[in-house]
């Protein structure tokens, strides 16, 4: 059982003390102007008491093969908190012994949940790739602005010689040991991208972020837990929440691309968007509903790998920097489980909490979901599946450092399509 769920554990008692200390001076009505989205975020973020998961959709419970993973984790929700519908899924990978399933959620048309879509072996491959191959030059990470990262990559350096000292970019002030180089991903409010605003977007200046003066020289081992994100494909400028089309686009790593294309081609989109009530959704954009063509036109070209330590959260936000406003966003969960909130087009819509476990995929698509508010208020500590932990039967010694890192980590690979297939952004003017 996760220590935070066990009232006799030190962690539980510490969370209780902290809770009493921080809430004793609250005035009545402190939460009256919170939006429904904010209320849900606060609920699942709470360290004490541990959040009640009775409203959390947990589709892994429908799969007998996952019962030991669920029991071991301790945290669980329910499979019937909201109405879901199983939809058709072509099993593109017939060699996969497990029967994959896909579900839509009534109330959020365009959301598809695919529990356990990624096999255990592919989960390991994606973790290896995310850390070893992807989170390094030329793909930008949150640490690049502040540190001279080794060109061979931080993770390979850590594996090879964990004591290597990594120097900060700015001369550091020996003030506090804390640093603002990791912490939450900063979220900026931006206008939705569209073909009409593209040239304006392209000419908006994107100042480079200033290196932190608080960054201290740290060993590779100390820096690894501060890795928070790595860009995929088009370079994303966090300060303006705009893609930087002046920078060369990187290829989407083949292991990510393969899973995304497989998932989009496997889903029976007719089951998602073909019913009369969903078909009448407007706001598909100038070309109207194009889901029938996704099998051919879907081509991921951007995204982000998020690395969450168990205390990290991701505030509610909308991903609207992509020109394609309805094409599928594929989101893969690896490692520790999380509570994912997904609501509507404003924060005033109460979100649906979904428990996402390792290997689960969600797809956000269409006008009601692709630009819906969503966030991750909680990583559920102690939920790493045994097959990703230390001493697994596939462990030939090489997996051990990955297992140790993953013990307190959730990785999310979040892949989007910025441009419609065939759209040529043309030569840059900036
Ligand atoms: O970690 C997740 O599940 C969601 C991440 C996300 O929403 C994002 O990267 O924009
Ligand atoms: Fe997002």
Automatic annotation (TrEMBL):
InterPro entries of this UniProt entry? Answer: Alkb, AlkB-like, AlkB-like_sf, Oxoglu/Fe-dep_dioxygenase_dom
Positions that bind Fe cation? 317, 319, 374
Q: List the Gene3D superfamilies hit by this protein, alphabetically.
A: Alpha-ketoglutarate-dependent dioxygenase AlkB-like
Q: Which molecular-function annotation in GO is an example for this chain?
A: metal ion binding
Provide the Fe2OG dioxygenase domain boundaries. Answer: 299-419
Spans of biased composition, class Basic residues? Answer: 13-24
Q: Per the entry, which co-factors are needed?
A: Fe(2+)
Q: Which SUPFAM superfamilies match?
A: Clavaminate synthase-like (SSF51197)
Q: How is the cofactor bound?
A: Binds 1 Fe(2+) ion per subunit.
Could you tell me where the Polar residues compositional bias lies? 173-182
Keyword annotations for this protein, in alphabetical order, are:
Dioxygenase, Iron, Metal-binding, Oxidoreductase
Q: What is this protein called?
A: Fe2OG dioxygenase domain-containing protein
Q: Which organism is it from?
A: Russula ochroleuca
